[in-house]
Amino acid sequence: MGLVDYSSLSSSSADESQPAGPPSKRRRRHAGGESQSDSGLPPLPDMFHDLYASTVRQSVADDPSLHQGRKRQNPHIAGNWPTHIYLEWHPSKVQHDVLVALVEKTQKQIGCANRLHSFLTSDLGTHLPLHISLSKPLSLPASIKDDFLDGVEESIRSGGMSPFSIKPAGLAWHKSPDSDRSFFVLRVATASTAMADKHHDGGESLMQGTNPELMQLLVKCNKVATNFGQPPLYQQTHDEPAHAAFHISIGWTLGRLDDETCLEVLGNFKDNAFREIHSWHIPVDTVKTKIGNIVSRTPLTLTRPGKKEGVDNLIGV
Fold first, then answer.
1. Residue 238 known to be catalytic
2. CATH code for the domain in which residue 278 is found
3. For the residues 87-98, what does the mean pLDDT come to?
4. pTM, whole model, 2 decimals?
């Protein structure tokens, strides 16, 4: 499920009302032939995106017609708060463009009868952040949501974890256990321990201990979830141990693809056009908890006593 979307308001009327400006200056070209943006404005800070991490509510009840026919994993309960714990990644423009090319090639391979919905770009063309889940989609009664957030933040902080990085380790299709959707994902591994044998898709076969930091975070989040009567994420099975289940979803499609097509798509990871994905390092320095439309941040660093990270700091309180 995409974490960020935007309303369908058009900017065309605003554009038409603007007076014609002076002729634009010629863009300065730098070494390598790339042109510099006319505005020269710095990128928005990561925390800015947290303020717009929810869509405009269009219905107070579940309505699959608003979501390409999808149904909630957990039906909405009046008075409960949808909750998710996750890590967020904002791909650079170069990384975004490579992933878009990968999705476009995959769409051609699976055929027009199976539409691949992308998590990379909004309907307005805005680049979207991607995420790694540390919890299932949860539904919290209002009476426990604040205590739940306190529990998550305390558990993360008490571990004294330092920031780390992960890297893509291959492609996979994940079948949703609760719907007809199949998710197209990047498997990930801790960059410092990218051990293991080559996988059939050209990626790495994730061995025990491949994701120690992610496993540590998962254990902490699962413990908080179960303490509040919520289901844990990634219960280890023989087919897919928990340490190998971490992934970044980049698209989804309805229905099940045939095995031959699935293998053809997974082979794209070793295609020369996408080789640079192997060298990407994805930083992990903050755990995010979204409750309703409020996103709280828990950094993987020791904070000063009495300083509470999260929503208050986003607005300077």
1. no
2. 3.90.1140.10
3. 97
4. 0.73
